[in-house]
Every structure is written in structure tokens, then in C-alpha cells.
Amino acid sequence: MMNPIDDDLLLKLEHLAKLNLDPEERAIIKSDLNKILAMFEKLQELDTSQEEPFRYFSEISGENVRQDEVKEHLRRETVLDLAPKHDDAFIRIPKMKD
Q1: In a domain, 26, yes or no
Q2: By the 8 A CB rule, do 45 and 25 touch?
Q3: Rg (CA), the chain
Q4: Residue 21 sits in which domain range?
């Protein structure tokens, strides 16, 4: 049986996800996560011993997967010329995080 999500774990997840939840939101998310864990527990009960494993989605969907095609790509110089700022072979972008 999986351990339920408790307040300590939820606070740790909130911190890792850089969220700032109010108590009401925290209660809703805790409930939702515990429901998801319960669904996984239910899946664990299924007997799949008689099932053949598959490697690719196309095996069960019947769809053919397209072949890779080699296509021309833009030259590095062209891309750098189109970029507003660049240093040598790198495109410069605005800072995303302090």
C-alpha cells in the first residue's frame, strides 16, 4: 500500500514546485493527490500476467509510424543573423531567473 500524502510531504512538494498555496488550495491538492495514489493502487491489483508486453504504441493502435526524412535546415549563420543578439555561435536571450 502506498503512503498517503501527509502535510509534511505536501509542504515539501509545494516548496519544490515553488508554489505558495493557501490552506484551502493545499487541502484540495492533498485530496486530489491522495485520490491519484488510490487509483494507482487499484491499477496494481490488476493481473497482467497473461498480457503480452508491447514495445511501441503503433503495435496496439494499428497506425503506421512515418519514416524519418532528411530535410534541409537553416545554416547557423542565417539563424544568428536573424537573432537580435548573439555572441559567436550562441544566441543571447534575456535573463529568465534572478
Answers
A1: yes
A2: no
A3: 24
A4: 7-44
